Amino acid sequence: MNEPVLEIKNLNVDYGLGDQAVHAVRDVNLTLHRGEVLGLAGESGSGKSTLAYGLTRLLAPPGVVSGGEVIYHPEQGEPYDVLGLTDRQLQAFRWAETAIVFQGAMNSLNPVHKISTQLTDVLAAHEPQMSSHSRNARAREMLKLVGISADRMDAYPHQLSGGMRQRVMIGMALILQPQVVIMDEPTTALDVVMQRQILGQLIELRERLGFSVIFITHDLSLLVEFSNRIAIMYGGRIVEEAQAATLYKDSLHPYSNGLLSSFPALRGPRRELAGIPGSPPDLKGMPSGCSFHPRCPKAFDPCADNIPVLGRPDTPDGATRTVACWLHPVQQTVG
């Protein structure tokens, strides 16, 4: 997993232009390695989905990428910046190289088209040389791969359960065998049993097909179990990144601690749950210094005036993690 497949460098995303612009994502640096699951966690409004839509150029107006690079490393050929692709190149890039599974499957699937039509349309657009028979065969194979019987090909979305609709979305995302799959809170509307089934199946498919995953959620407990690495976002910035096991056992940022303390442990002694006081910051009027300091139980003098930089902390495992917090001086900045 040392080979990068996607590099996000100093990415900035705004809503609006000029002095009235809202800076939703600021100076984000992330690397997704080939074959890994990178979790992206944070409260609603922290910039997770905006980051995903920005790096894939799916932002609706007035959203705009105001700076940075998104370097994609194909299996063959030279790396290139996704933000510099022409419309024709971008059309070929989406679904074939990078696909997205959106949060609400019922809103993402067309309610007046059968499942078969929506699966085969992807193939018709990207592989026009395929015959109708071959497209239908591929669609049936993909449904089977995600645990849906092929006899549901002629069903409409409203005739499927929530879990089945989400499986269809995963199948649609994987039908062209992309290298990167971005999952934007795909299990939020599902019960915990169905969540586990779909996530377990996703990991099995990743091991079989070898794609990489950016998994976005506000539920850190899911990421601890299913991710290789986890990045924590707050106020549009990455505030901590580490291996999943490392973050769970020894998180450095107080915000990460707050997220970890807000869900019950599956094993071990009972512990009292503790939420994070206050609310996420208003992006139109961000607090000075560290954006988390008004809610932070460990804030001290520098926090209110100076923005901490993301870097490698002065700890024994500092080479494999980053944090942006004045409690942990960094040896090397990232970006």
Automatic annotation (TrEMBL):
Q: What Pfam family is a match, any one?
A: oligo_HPY
Signal peptide annotation = none
InterPro entries assigned: AAA+_ATPase, ABC_transporter-like_ATP-bd, ABC_transporter-like_CS, Oligopep_ABC_C, P-loop_NTPase
Which SMART domains does the entry mention?
A: AAA
Q: Which organism is it from?
A: Actinoplanes nipponensis
Q: Which UniProt keywords apply?
A: ATP-binding, Nucleotide-binding, Transport
Q: Name one GO biological process term.
A: peptide transport
Question: Which family, according to UniProt?
Answer: Belongs to the ABC transporter superfamily.
Q: Which domain of life is it from?
A: Bacteria
Question: In its UniProt entry, what is this protein called?
Answer: Dipeptide/oligopeptide/nickel ABC transporter ATP-binding protein
Question: Which GO terms fall under molecular function for this chain's record?
Answer: ATP binding; ATP hydrolysis activity
User: Is ATP-binding among this UniProt entry's keywords?
Assistant: yes
Q: Which residues form the ABC transporter domain?
A: 8-260
